[in-house]
Amino acid sequence: MLNPASPIGFLIAMLDVRRHRARTDDERGASAVEWVIIAAIVVGICVVIAGILQGALTSEANEISNEIKNQ
């Protein structure tokens, strides 16, 4: 094993790190796809909840408006 403090040892250590990263890029890509899917699901759930809340709030606002007009 070469001394990592020497120039050749440092270059070999850096190449080893890059080689290791290149081998694990497939796992990173799969992880990124999983996060995109999870984010899309969360956004979809938020849109559905926002639609439900908007409908409920609009209905209640109309009822309050009608009560004020009737007084």
From TrEMBL:
It comes from the Bacteria. The chain crosses the membrane at residues 35-57. Keywords: Membrane, Transmembrane, Transmembrane helix. The keyword Transmembrane applies. This is Flp family type IVb pilin. The lineage of its organism: Bacteria, Bacillati, Actinomycetota, Actinomycetes, Propionibacteriales.
